[in-house]
Amino acid sequence: MRIARFSIDGNVAFGAVEGDPAGPDGLVVDVIKGIPFAEFELSGTKIPLDKVRLLPPVLPSKIVAVGRNYAEHAAEMGGEVPEVPVTFFKPSTSVVGPGDPIVLPAFSREVHHEAELAVVIGRMCREVPRERAADVILGYTCANDVTARDVQRSEEQWARAKGFDSSCPLGPWIETDVDPADLAVTATVNGELRQAGRTGQMVRSVADLIVHVTEAMTLLPGDVLLTGTPAGVGPIEAGDEVAVTVEGIGTLTNKVVRGR
Q1: Which terminal residue of the chain, N or C, has fewer Cβ atoms less than 10 Å from its own Cβ?
Q2: Residue 38 shares a structural domain with residue 71
Q3: Is pTM beyond 0.90 here?
Q4: Phi and psi for 33 in degrees, rounded to 5?
Q5: Could you tell me how far CA 128 lies from the centroid of its own chain?
Q6: Residue 213: which H helix or E strand, with range?
Q7: Taking residues 99-120, what's their average pLDDT?
């Protein structure tokens, strides 16, 4: 199931995206009665997808991100894969949805795209054993871990470099029925392919990362885990259009603008 969060006529709801974009009715969203983090029903009220505004599929209490989880990306950053996963936070205020602008911060002159598979947590969990990792996952979405690279290099902590407003586009929806083991992950800028990798290249799997993170903290429904980016990261400029595609999920597209 593809679960979207959307607004229409000033109202916000969740819905299941259904249909065939090439079919006579196109894609529609069937409004969900309730929320996707508990038992819910489809209302049967279906709205054409092009009549709603897609929002970030979740509003997480926290985004836990993992750095250098692809060996080739670690190499292009001038290092090796660390023995222990590098984790950092992106605040909830960094989240934007499909079609929202990525606003380049005034304090940086070198901002990069980073295409990633994002894991959406479906239930409160702590100290999750590897064999139960799938049980705590609601589904998966596309993410762009937008990074002020010059600031990342100059400051020991990554809070400003990775956590500025609009630095975490998520979307277009949550796909609940996909195997994350070996999915293509790509990024294009103005239609030019920049990144092309597969989740099978990740040094640590989704289950490994859930085990590692939940050893330290409780994850709540709607929290997001970013799993790292393949090689090919690079600069984005005002006026660019960045598209992150994850196989079996969809494409997340955002325009880039310069902040005041």
Answers
A1: C
A2: no
A3: yes
A4: -90, 105
A5: 22
A6: helix 206-214
A7: 98
116 φ, ψ (degrees, to nearest 5): -145, 155
Q: What is the largest CA-CA distance in the chain?
A: 54
Q: What is the DSSP letter of 100?
A: P
* Chain centre to alpha carbon of residue 23: 28
Nearest of 223, 213, 59, 61 to residue 126 by alpha carbon? 213
Give 156's DSSP letter. Answer: S
Task: Count structural domains, the chain.
Answer: 2
Distance CA 178, CA 247 (A): 9
CATH code, 43: 2.30.30.370
pLDDT for position 80: 78
Instruction: Kindly calculate the radius of gyration of the chain based on its CA atoms and give it in whole angstroms.
Output: 18
**Would the pLDDT of 58 be above 80?**
yes
- Reduced to 3 states (helix: H, G, I; strand: E, B; else coil), residue 50 is helix
Same domain (yes/no): 38, 96? no
Q: Please choose, from the candidates 236, 211, 76, the residue with its C-alpha nearest in 3D space to the C-alpha of residue 135.
A: 211
Domain carrying residue 219 = 63-258
